[in-house]
Specification:
15 helices; six-stranded mixed sheet; 415 residues; five-stranded mixed sheet; 25% strand
Length: 415
C-alpha cells in the first residue's frame, strides 16, 4: 500500500505553525509497514485542494489528511473530499448531540456553524473525537482509501491510535520495526565512517544515520512478519554498532542525555551539586529534569560575578587575578568549592565567554572551561564552541553532561 499525507491549512503553508502531524503519521504508518511516498501542504483553497486530491489518488492507494475540519467557511477538507468521491453528506443527529454535549461540558453555547461538523456521507466510517468537536472519517471507494483527521495534534493523535491503527492493521503485510541508538560526543560523519561497512551492507535490517543538535541517531529498521522476528534481526546489527562506536552510544529509543545521567546518579547514589557562571543555571535545569533526582541533587548556584565565586565557592582572589574568571584554574576551584560546601560526591562547574561581546584573541567567544570534582579527584576540560550566545550555553551543557557520564562510567563505577 502506497500512502500520501496531505496537511491542510494556510497557517502551515505560511510557516506560522510546524507540521508535526506529518512526522507522527509517517512514523506510525512505517510501523505498520505502509510506505509513505509523498507529503504535501495545501492552503485553505477549494480549487487547489481538489487538485491535491486528484494528484494524491493518482499516485497513492491511501491518502490521509489533517486539518480543515473546523466550523468556519474555509474549513473545507471533508467537503471537497466528498465532492471528489461524488458523495452527498447528511446530518448525523447522534454526532450533533455529542458536539452539543462537548460545549455543555465547557459551559458554552454551541453556535450554529458547528452543526457543519456533523455532516458526513452515509458511506463514511466516522471516527469519534474524544478531545474536540470535529469527528474524522474513513471513506473507501474504487480501491482507494481516504482518512480525514483533525488538525490539532491533541485531537489527531488519540483518534489515530484509537481508530485508524486498528482499521489499517488489516492491510498489514508484515511489520516494520525500528530501534534507535543515540550517539553523543562524535559527529555524524565520524560516526558514519566508523560503521560505514555496516551501513553499506545493510538490507534487512537497514541502518540510517540522522544528525540532531549535539548528537547522532542511528535507526536500525527490520521488516518481518512479527515484531519478535524483527527484533531478532536487529540484535546482531545493534551489537556490531555498539562494538564499533563504544561508549559514545549513550542510550536508545526516546531517552535523553539528562535522563541517562539522572539514572546513573540515582542508581549509584552519587550526590551532585553544580556551580555555574556562563550557563546561568541551564546545567542544573537539565539535571533536575529527571524525576527523582532530588535523592542526589543537593544544590545548584549561579556565581556570575567574581565576588560571588569568592564568597560562595571559596575561589581564591589570587586565582582570579592571575588567571581570570575564564580559566581552568577558576573552574577547578569552583567545582571543588561547590562539592565541599554542599557535601556531595560530585561538584561540577562552568565558566566561559558566551558572547556576543567580551571575547579577545587570547580568550575568544565560545571558550568555556569545565571543572569536575569527583570524590576528591579533580579534572578540568576546555571547550571551544561556535554559535550565538544561546547555542554556546546549550552546547556547553550537553558537552558537560556527556563528559560527566563518561567519567563516571570509566572511573567511579569501576573502582
Amino acid at each position: 500500500m502506497k500512502a500520501e499525507i496531505l496537511a491542510v491549512g494556510t497557517e502551515i503553508l505560511l510557516g506560522n505553525i510546524v507540521n508535526t502531524n506529518a512526522q507522527y503519521i509517517a512514523k506510525r504508518l512505517a510501523d505498520l509497514g505502509i510506505d509513505v511516498y509523498h507529503q504535501s501542504v495545501i492552503g485553505d483553497n477549494p480549487e487547489r485542494l481538489k487538485e491535491a486530491y486528484k494528484l494524491a489518488f493518482n499516485r497513492a492507494d491511501l491518502v490521509i489528511t489533517t486539518g480543515g475540519l473546523g466550523p468556519t467557511k474555509d474549513d473545507l477538507t471533508k467537503e471537497i473530499a466528498f465532492e471528489y468521491f461524488q458523495m452527498e453528506s447528511v446530518l448525523y443527529e447522534d454526532i450533533l448531540e455529542k458536539i452539543e454535549e462537548y460545549f455543555n461540558k465547557m459551559n458554552r453555547k454551541m453556535v450554529q456553524s458547528n452543526k457543519k461538523q456533523a455532516y458526513f456521507p452515509k458511506e463514511a466510517h466516522i471516527l469519534p473525537n474524544d478531545k474536540g468537536t470535529a469527528p474524522g472519517c474513513i471513506i473507501e471507494k474504487d480501491n482507494k482509501i481516504l482518512i480525514v483527521l483533525p488538525g490539532p495534534p491533541k485531537e489527531m493523535k488519540p483518534m489515530f491510535e484509537k481508530s485508524v491503527i486498528p482499521y489499517l492493521s488489516k492491510y498489514q503485510d508484515g511489520i516494520l520495526f525500528s530501534k534507535i541508538l543515540r550517539v553523543i560526543g562524535i559527529g555524524e560523519s565520524a560516526a558514519s565512517e566508523q560503521i560505514g561497512d555496516i551501513i553499506d551492507n545493510s538490507y534487512n535490517p537497514t541502518v540510517a544515520p540522522y544528525a540532531k543538535e549535539n548528537e547522532v541517531i542511528f535507526r536500525i529498521t527490520a521488516k518481518a512478519k512479527t515484531q519478535k522476528e524483527a527484533e531478532d534481526l536487529i540484535v546482531p546489527v545493534e551489537n556490531q554498532i555498539r562494538e564499533k562506536i563504544g561508549i559514545a552510544v549513550y542510550g536508545e529509543g526516546e531517552t535523553s542525555i539528562e535522563e541517562v545521567i539522572g539514572n546513573i546518579l540515582v542508581n549509584n547514589k552519587l550526590t551532585i551539586a553544580t556551580a555555574e557562571s556562563c550557563t546561568g543555571g541551564l546545567l542544573a535545569g537539565k539535571i533536575i529534569n529527571y524525576p527523582g533526582i532530588s535523592e542526589v541533587f543537593k544544590e545548584g548556584i549561579i556565581t556570575y560575578s567574581n565576588e560571588a565565586k569568592m564568597k560562595r565557592l571559596n575561589v581564591k582572589k589570587e586565582t582570579l587575578d592571575k588567571y581570570g574568571a575564564v580559566s581552568s584554574q577558576t573552574a577547578a576551584e569552583m567545582a571543588e568549592g561547590i562539592a565541599k560546601t554542599a557535601n556531595t560526591d560530585i561538584g561540577i562547574s562552568t565558566t566561559g565567554i558566551a558572547g556576543p561581546g567580551g571575547g579577545s584573541s587570547e580568550k575568544p567567544i565560545g571558550l568555556v572551561y569545565v571543572g569536575l570534582y569527583i570524590k576528591g579527584k579533580m579534572k578540568t576540560k576546555e571547550l571551544r564552541l561556535v554559535g550565538d550566545r544561546q547555542r554556546v550555553r546549550n552546547s556547553t551543557v550537553i558537552r558537560v553532561l556527556e563528559w560527566l557520564r563518561r567519567e563516571i562510567l570509566k572511573g567511579v563505577l569501576k573502582e
